[in-house]
Design a protein that fits this description.
The structure holds two protein chains of two kinds. By secondary structure, chain A is an alpha/beta fold. Chain A is 42% helix and 18% strand. By secondary structure, chain B is an alpha+beta fold. Classes of the chains: A alpha/beta, B alpha+beta. The interface between A and B is large, with 46 and 50 residues.
Chain lengths: 283, 278
C-alpha cells in the first residue's frame, strides 16, 4: 500500500547530490579552500550555542554550500514531555541558516528528565506507534516543516515487540506524514545483530518517503557489529546501497565519518564513489 | 509492560554502575524486557549500551577538562568521572552540558587532599569552554572611543564583554593550563591568590593573571560602570604608578584585547552620573 502513496513530506525536499558530514578537523580547510562538495550535513546540537566560533563557521559554510541539520537529541520516542525549549532553539537556528531539511532519529535518548546521550531502539508496538506518531506531528508543527526520521543501529530488541522495525518506520512515516532518512549502514549493522535479511528491510520501505541516505563504516566485534563511523564503508554495505538506489532512485546521499576522521580529500573521494555507484546502479 | 516503565527499566539497567560488577541487574532487566540469543545473550546486549554510555561521557569530560584530566592521569580521572556521572547524570539534550557540575563536584571531593588545586583548574578548563561559545556582541574599540567628545568620557558606561569570565583562584592554576597547552611539563602550582581573566578575541580564547588594581576595575566593569568610576577604582587600588598612566595603559590593553563590549552610549550617558560631580 505504501508504494502508491504520494508523500507530501518528501515533495519539498531538493535532490542535493552527494555530501559529507561536516566535522571539526575539516572546518578551516572547507572555509579557506572551498573544496568541491555538493552539500554538508551538520549536527544541529553542535551549533545550538549562544555564539562564538561554531556559528561563525556555520555562517561561512552556509555562504557557499547547501546544509542540512541532523539532530541527536530530539528523543522522539521518549515518554518524557517534548522539550519545547530545545525545539524553539532548533527552529531559531533553522530560521537563521535555512537548512534544506531537518532530521533526527527514530529512537529515545532518555527518560525521567535524564539523558543517555545515545540512540536507543523502541519497542515496536501499537502503543509506541501511537505515541511516536503524535509526537512527530507536534514537532513538525512547532518546526513548521516535515522532518526526516532515521533508522538507528541497535544491539537489543524488546521482547514485547509486535512488528518489525521496517514496518514500524514505514507506518510512522505514513501516519505522521514525515520523511525517512534511510541509514544503509544501520540496516546492515542491525540485520547482523538481530539476524534478519537487510534486503527485506529495504524492500519494505515506501519509495516516496525516503529523502536521504546515510552511508558509514562500522567495526566488527565478533559476535556483533558496532556502528562506530570510524572505518571505510564495507563492500556489503555498498551493495545494499546500490539496491536502495535501484529501489528509491537518486536520493541525496551523505557519508558519515565521526572517529579516526580521515583527510577531507579522502572523505570527498568516498562521496564520489557513492556518486559512481549510484550512477551505475541506475544504469 | 508499558512504554514508560520499559524506558525507566532500561535506563536503570544502562546507568547503574553495579550492573557491570556482577551482571545481576543486567540479567534481571534483560530477562524482563529484551530478546537475546545464544550468540549474543540479552544481558550482553544491554551491557553494550552501558559501556557506550560511560565511554561517551568520559570522552566528553576529557575534551572539556583537558588540563584537569592531564594532571590527574587516565586512571584517576576515569574513576572520578564515573563517580561524577553517578552523582550528576546528564539531564540536558546536548552532551556539552554533561560536565557543568564537575568543578563543584571536585571542590567537595577527597581528591583535593592530593591535588588541592584541581577544582580551580577544572573551573579554568570550564571557563575556557564557556567563553568559546559565549554570546557574540560587538567589542568596544579604540576608534570608537576616540570619536567621543572628551566631556563624554567620564559618564561613558563600560561593560566587560559577555565572552569573558573572571576567576578568583587560591592557586596559580593558569601556569598549569599554560604548560599543558604548550605541551611542556607541568608542575604543582604555587599557592598564591590570583584573579584570572578568560576572554575571547575574534574566535580565539585567552587567559591571563590580572594585576590587583586591574581586577578591581574589571570587577566593577563586569556590572557595567561609568568610566569615571572605573578610573576611581583603579586609582584607589593602584600603588607605585601614576594613576593616569595606569588607566591609559590598561584601557589600551582592554581595547586591544576586546575585553569591553559596546554599550548604548546615548542611553547610558543619560542615565549615568559621575560621583565626583554630584
Amino acid at each position: 500500500m505504501f508504494e502508491k502513496a504520494v508523500s507530501l513530506a518528501c515533495a519539498h525536499l531538493p535532490a542535493l547530490g552527494f555530501g559529507v558530514g561536516l566535522r571539526r578537523p575539516h572546518y578551516s580547510q572547507v572555509l579557506e579552500q572551498h573544496p568541491p562538495m555538493d552539500w554538508f550535513e551538520v549536527i544541529s546540537e553542535n551549533f545550538m550555542v549562544p555564539g562564538g566560533q561554531p556559528l561563525k563557521v556555520l555562517e561561512g559554510i552556509r555562504e557557499r554550500y547547501p546544509v542540512v541539520f541532523h539532530g541527536v537529541s530530539l528523543s522522539i520516542g521518549s515518554t518524557d514531555p517534548i522539550r519545547r525549549g530545545y525545539l524553539k532553539s532548533l527552529a531559531s537556528l533553522a530560521r537563521r541558516f535555512e537548512p534544506a531539511w531537518i532530521s533526527d532519529h527514530l529512537c529515545w535518548t532518555g527518560v525521567g528528565g535524564r539523558s543517555l546521550h545515545d540512540l536507543l531502539p523502541l519497542p515496536y508496538t501499537d502503543e509506541t506507534l501511537r505515541h511516536v506518531v503524535q509526537r512527530v506531528r507536534i514537532v513538525q508543527e512547532i518546526l513548521g516543516q516535515p522532518i526526516l526520521l532515521e533508522n538507528v543501529s541497535s544491539y537489543f530488541e524488546f521482547a514485547n515487540a509486535t512488528m518489525s522495525e521496517w514496518n514500524f518506520l514505514a507506518t510512522v512515516a505514513e501516519e505522521a506524514d514525515c520523511a525517512i532518512l534511510l541509514d544503509i549502514n544501520n540496516i546492515f549493522v542491525s540485520a547482523f545483530n538481530h539476524r534478519f535479511d537487510p534486503r527485506v528491510y529495504i524492500d519494505a520501505i515506501p519509495i516516496g518517503r525516503v529523502g536521504q541516505f546515510h552511508l558509514a563504516g562500522h567495526s566488527d566485534h565478533g559476535g556483533y557489529l558496532l556502528d562506530t563511523h570510524d572505518h571505510p564503508i564495507r563492500e556489503e554495505v555498498w551493495r545494499l546501497y546500490e539496491q536502495a538506489v535501484r529501489r528509491f532512485g537518486p536520493v541525496s546521499t551523505l557519508i558519515e565519518w565521526d572517529d579516526n576522521i580521515p583527510e577531507f580529500s579522502r572523505l570527498a573521494a568516498v562521496a564520489d564513489e557513492a556518486r559512481q555507484r549510484a550512477r551505475t546502479a541506475l544504469g | 509492560m508499558r512504554l514508560k516503565q520499559l524506558q525507566r527499566l532500561i535506563y536503570a539497567g544502562i546507568t547503574t554502575p553495579d550492573g557491570s560488577v556482577d551482571g545481576r541487574l543486567y540479567r534481571s532487566v534483560a530477562e524482563r524486557a529484551l530478546r537475546g540469543d545464544v550468540g549474543l545473550p540479552a544481558a550482553r546486549r544491554l551491557q553494550i549500551y552501558t559501556e557506550a554510555y560511560f565511554l561517551r561521557l568520559l570522552s566528553c569530560l576529557r575534551e572539556d577538562f583537558p588540563a584537569t584530566s592531564t594532571v590527574l592521569g587516565d586512571a584517576r580521572f576515569e574513576a572520578l568521572a564515573r563517580s561524577y556521572i553517578a552523582h550528576h547524570p546528564p539531564t540536558e539534550p546536548s552532551i556539552d552540558h554533561a560536565g557543568r557540575h564537575f568543578p563543584t563536584f571536585l571542590r567537595d571531593h577527597s581528591i583535593l587532599l592530593d591535588f588541592p588545586f584541581v577544582a580551580e583548574l577544572a573551573r579554568l578548563d570550564q571557563a575556557i569552554t564557556e567563553v568559546f561559545i559565549a554570546p557574540d556582541s560587538p567589542v568596544l574599540d579604540a576608534d570608537e572611543m576616540r570619536k567621543l567628545a572628551p566631556e563624554a568620557w567620564p559618564t561613558l558606561v563600560l561593560r566587560t564583554h559577555p565572552a569573558s569570565r573572571m576567576l578568583e583562584c587560591e592557586w596559580r592554576v593558569g601556569d598549569v593550563r599554560r604548560a599543558i597547552d604548550n605541551a611542556t611539563p607541568w608542575r604543582n602550582p604555587h599557592r598564591e591568590r590570583t584573579v584570572l581573566l578568560v576572554w575571547r578575541n575574534q574566535m580565539d580564547v585567552y587567559f591571563r593573571e590580572l594585576e590587583p588594581a586591574e581586577s578591581a576595575a574589571l570587577r566593577v566593569a563586569s556590572e557595567g560602570a561609568a568610566f569615571c568610576v572605573i578610573c576611581e577604582t583603579l586609582a584607589r587600588a593602584h600603588f607605585g604608578e601614576d594613576p593616569a598612566e595606569a588607566i591609559n595603559r590598561l584601557l589600551g590593553r582592554w581595547l586591544a584585547d576586546g575585553v569591553l563590549a559596546v554599550c548604548d552610549l546615548r542611553a547610558q550617558r543619560a542615565a549615568t552620573r559621575c560621583p565626583q560631580r554630584r
